[in-house]
Each structure stands twice: as structure tokens, then as C-alpha cells.
Amino acid sequence: MLMNGTATLRCKDFLQYNIGHSLERYGCTSTLYHKDDSIATENLAYLLYAMEMAVMDTLAVWCDFATNMHAQRVVRLAEAVGTELQLSRHDLMVLRLAALLHDIGKVAIPPAILHKQGPLDSQEWTLIRLHPEMGWNILQGAGAILEQVASLVIAHHEAWNGSGYPRGLYKTDIPFLARILTVVDSYDAMVSDRVYGKPLPILSACQELVQCASHQYDPQIVLAFLSVLFGKKTTQQHGYTMFRRNPVINAPELADEECVRLLLQSAEYVRVSA
């Protein structure tokens, strides 16, 4: 099977047209090309709203329902972690957009591979692993902000120890915001119903994150994520509470407080030791 280059180009044109139309509608066209925090707060809010409307419209047309819902969950989780890490308002905007668009490159992957029941062969995995680069290609040329987003999209499958793809970036060579995406994307994939496997319980997914911290994930990000998920502050606004119904599998899960305490201790130990 081959990559669908035509779909990539058509999606790119569709996204850029939608963004241009939406920004013009909300009077934000000039702000698309800002590269820093110089945009006024109210203009930033208009810009984010306008761009998210355009992006969600694009996802609705070009991506399947499961990919769309996954993107929206990743947005909520990424924003929560970004807030925990005290990101600037500009970085939070870029992170939200990157979370929405991180899998946009999958439009180039044949549906038969994306929805295959069972394990992928080596050729299929090779194609799947190209989607970060395809996403980067789609976002190029759409203004400075989306080029910042593109740098996160292409890096969201990089690994802390340099074993990730497509460029094998190592530790802090991976953009900080992309490291956030990697953790929340992996977590949501683990607790979600997938064509290739059943969802993990929430605590099991968190244990997997801790075990892979300092190898696959930035330990600082893992700790921040767990602090958001199980911290003292209520996380109901992000879809999670200490004793709650798993929002994906719609089944009750009991998060034992002692297990959570040990999990957070382990994450802190890995972070300090890294």
C-alpha cells in the first residue's frame, strides 16, 4: 500500500482555506504571523477561537470519529498539564492547536491500515510511522503560528532516550511542548478502546507511564500529568476525578489513594534520578 499524497495535498488546501476564512471572519488575519507573546490577550482569545473552529471543521471532514474524539480528549489533557507547568498563554494556544492537529497526517494513511483488526506487519508500521512528517507537511506555509504547531506535530512520537521517530531526537532536543503531547497522547491511547486492543484501567496506564519515564517520556512531564490527574485540586473540568467513571470505557474505576500516593512517589523519584 502507498501513502495517499493526494489526500495530504487536498487536506492541506482545505485546512489553509478554512483558517484563512475563519481568521478573516473574526478579524485576526494579521495575528496569524506573530511568532511570540506580543499578541494582546483579547486578540489571542479571538485568534485561538477562530483557528480552533477552522481546525475542528477540517478534522470533521478529513478524520474519522475516533480520531476526532481522541484529539479533543488530548486537547483537554494537554491544556491541564500545560497549566500545571505554568506555560505562557501563547504556548498554551500553540499546545492546544498541536493537540488538535497531532494526528492530522493520518489522512495520508490508507484506511485499511488505520482500522486494521489485529497486528500490523512491518510495511504497515513503516507507513503509520510516517504520519508525523505528513502532518508537518500539511501545516507548512500556513503562517508562523501553525509552523510552531508543525514542529510539535512532527515530534510527538519522539522518545526521551532518542529511540523515537521520525528524527530520533534526544531528551531536550525534543521541543518541550511536544514532550507534553507525547505523554497525554500515549495515556489517552492506553485508556481508550482501540482496534488493536482493549483499554487499560486508568491506574495501569499511569503505572506504564511511570515505568517508561526517563526512557520514552520526560519524567518531569509524567509527574506533572499525574499531579493533574490525581492531585488535590479537582480535575472534574478535565473529565477525571479520584473516584470516577472512566470517561472512555464508561465503567466505574476506584483509584485507591495509597496506590496513587506510591505512584506519585515513584514518578518523583524517577524525575529526581533522571
Automatic annotation (TrEMBL):
<dbReference type="InterPro" id="IPR052020">
    <property type="entry name" value="Cyclic_di-GMP/3'3'-cGAMP_PDE"/>
</dbReference>
<feature type="domain" description="HD-GYP">
    <location>
        <begin position="45"/>
        <end position="241"/>
    </location>
</feature>
<protein>
    <recommendedName>
        <fullName>HD-GYP domain-containing protein</fullName>
    </recommendedName>
</protein>
<dbReference type="InterPro" id="IPR037522">
    <property type="entry name" value="HD_GYP_dom"/>
</dbReference>
<dbReference type="InterPro" id="IPR003607">
    <property type="entry name" value="HD/PDEase_dom"/>
</dbReference>
<dbReference type="Pfam" id="PF13487">
    <property type="entry name" value="HD_5"/>
</dbReference>
